[in-house]
UniProtKB/TrEMBL annotation:
<feature type="domain" description="GST N-terminal">
    <location>
        <begin position="1"/>
        <end position="78"/>
    </location>
</feature>
<dbReference type="InterPro" id="IPR004045">
    <property type="entry name" value="Glutathione_S-Trfase_N"/>
</dbReference>
<dbReference type="Pfam" id="PF13417">
    <property type="entry name" value="GST_N_3"/>
</dbReference>
<protein>
    <recommendedName>
        <fullName>GST N-terminal domain-containing protein</fullName>
    </recommendedName>
</protein>
<dbReference type="InterPro" id="IPR036249">
    <property type="entry name" value="Thioredoxin-like_sf"/>
</dbReference>
Length: 229
């Protein structure tokens, strides 16, 4: 069976999960603990990043490549439109979302969440190996320092990222906590993430509608029209 090496919290991994679910392709997730993922992924691909899809002997790294691979290996239903011009638009939109929005949403969320280990540690360990909690009890402070450094997570960085976020919409699901994402979202978020997400809620209503229509409803027709307002 196909395996998806992933972090449950990662929205790039959610993109791959969504594509697999959309295709109706059976798969198993291999949930990795941030920090402990490094040797596992290095052995597998020579790099550290997830998601990585393993289909038999074929290994595909990166959410964009995973979506392309799935469309080739499991063509129906198709993720890509048939028309070449529309395909180009999809590719441009995906590249924009992956490069210009995804990292900003991640940085803005972590800027608050890393101050709340009670919330973020379960996100990191959910569905993973039994020793994940024990590992994070010891390693979380060092992991947090490493993440802040690697992703430039600080007050100024978070502010720049928020500016980006409010001007564009893509990979926004963690800000609206839709059902179907695969995480057990907390009822209340800590500040300032709580106020920010509630201010953004009217702008993000369509993200929830997309989830409601396509992610939770198994009977929805792929490609059915959505009325954005
Ligand atoms: N462009 C990549 C981005 C993937 C990415 O940034 N993955 C992060 C998690 S959100 C990761 O694996 N970070 C840990 C690492 O690189 O070691 C994709 O689309 O798959």
């Amino acid at each position: 069976m196909i395996k998806l090496y992933q972090f449950p919290i990662s929205h790039y991994c959610e993109k791959a999960r969504w594509a697999l679910d959309f295709k109706g392709v059976p798969y198993q997730v291999v949930n990795l603990i941030p920090g402990l993922h490094v040797p596992v992924m290095k052995r597998l691909t020579g790099r550290t990043s997830v998601p990585v899809l393993a289909d038999g002997d074929t290994l595909i790294a990166g959410s964009d490549r995973i979506l392309d691979y799935l469309d080739q290996a499991y063509p129906q239903p198709s993720l890509m439109p048939a028309d070449a011009e529309q395909q180009q638009a999809v590719r441009e939109w995906e590249a924009f979302a992956d490069k210009d929005i995804g990292p900003h949403v991640r940085r803005y969320c972590y800027h608050t969440l890393l101050n709340h280990p009670d919330i973020v540690k379960p996100f990191f360990t959910t569905g993973g190996p039994w020793y994940g909690g024990l590992f994070l009890r010891a390693a979380f402070p060092a992991l947090r320092i490493g993440m802040r450094k690697a992703m430039n997570i600080n007050e100024a960085g978070a502010k720049r990222s928020l500016d980006k976020i409010v001007t564009a919409v893509a990979l926004l699901a963690p800000l609206c906590r839709p059902e179907g994402y695969g995480l057990d979202w907390p009822e209340e978020l800590p500040e300032p993430l709580a106020s920010t997400t509630s201010q953004l809620a009217p702008k993000l209503a369509w993200v929830l509608r997309v989830y409601d229509t396509y992610r939770r409803n198994d009977e929805a027709e792929p490609g059915a029209d959505l009325a954005y307002s």
